[in-house]
C-alpha cells in the first residue's frame, strides 16, 4: 500500500474535555465546532490562507474578533477536518487509500483549491490519487470501499467512477502489466531520504510517496 506524507512539524494538538487546541504562543481567534468537538485555532496564521470557505465565512469580521462557526456538515466529520487543519499548520500527516476519500471530500468542502493558494491540499490529493492509488489493485479497491461512508460526495466528485474504471481496466489488462499495490519495501520517513529497498520513494507534486508490504 502506498502512503504520502505531508508536513514536517510535530503534532501539537491536545485535548481538554471536548476541546481540541494547538500548543502555540499565539492566541486562538477561530473557534470551529464539529459534532460536539470544539477546535480553537488561528485564522490568518494558518487556516484562512488555504481555505476558501473559511475566508468567505470570516469576511467582514473586524480584527481581532474571535470568529465562531459550526461545520457539522463537513464530509468525514472532525477526523477529516483535523487532517485538513494539520495540513494548514504544516503538521505531519500520512495519507493512504484508507483516509484519502475523507480527506479529499473535506478539502473540497473547505475549498482548499489552487484559486485560494498555489499547491494547495486538493491538488496534492488529486496527484496522489491519480499517480498512486489508482495504479494498484489493493489501493483502488480500498479507496472504493471507503466511499460507502461518503457515498454522495464520492459520487459527485467522481471518486467512485474513477475507482471502478481503474479496477475494470486492470481486469482487462494482462496480469503481468497490472500493479498490485504491493511492495517488498518498507515505509520511509522524509528524514531518511533514501533506502536500500528495491522500490524507492517517488515524488508527487513535490511530496514523497512511500510503499509498504502488507
From TrEMBL:
Pathway(s) where this gene product acts: Protein modification; protein ubiquitination
Domain of life: Eukaryota
Region (Disordered): 178-214
Positions with biased composition (Polar residues): 189-214
InterPro entries linked: NPH3/RPT2-like, SKP1/BTB/POZ_sf
Protein name: BTB domain-containing protein
Species the sequence originates in: Linum tenue
Amino acid at each position: 500500500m502506498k502512503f504520502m506524507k505531508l508536513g514536517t512539524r510535530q503534532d501539537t494538538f491536545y485535548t481538554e474535555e471536548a476541546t481540541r487546541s494547538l500548543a502555540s504562543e499565539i492566541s486562538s481567534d477561530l473557534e470551529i465546532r464539529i459534532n460536539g468537538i470544539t477546535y480553537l485555532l488561528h485564522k490568518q496564521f494558518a487556516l484562512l490562507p488555504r481555505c476558501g470557505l473559511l475566508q468567505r465565512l470570516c469576511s467582514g469580521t473586524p480584527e481581532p474578533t474571535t470568529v465562531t462557526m459550526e461545520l457539522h456538515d463537513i464530509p468525514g466529520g472532525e477526523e477529516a477536518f483535523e487532517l485538513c487543519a494539520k495540513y494548514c499548520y504544516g503538521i505531519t500527516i500520512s495519507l493512504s487509500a484508507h483516509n484519502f476519500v475523507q480527506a479529499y471530500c473535506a478539502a473540497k468542502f473547505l475549498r482548499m483549491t489552487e484559486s485560494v493558494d498555489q499547491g494547495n491540499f486538493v491538488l496534492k490529493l488529486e496527484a496522489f490519487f491519480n499517480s498512486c492509488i489508482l495504479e494498484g489493485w489493493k489501493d483502488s479497491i480500498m479507496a472504493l470501499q471507503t466511499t460507502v461512508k461518503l457515498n454522495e460526495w464520492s459520487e459527485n466528485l467522481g471518486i467512485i467512477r474513477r475507482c471502478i474504471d481503474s479496477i475494470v481496466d486492470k481486469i482487462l489488462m494482462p496480469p503481468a502489466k497490472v500493479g498490485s499495490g504491493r511492495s517488498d519495501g518498507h515505509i520511509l520517513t522524509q528524514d531518511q531520504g533514501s533506502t536500500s529497498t528495491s522500490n524507492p520513494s517517488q515524488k508527487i507534486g513535490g511530496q514523497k510517496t512511500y510503499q509498504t508490504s502488507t
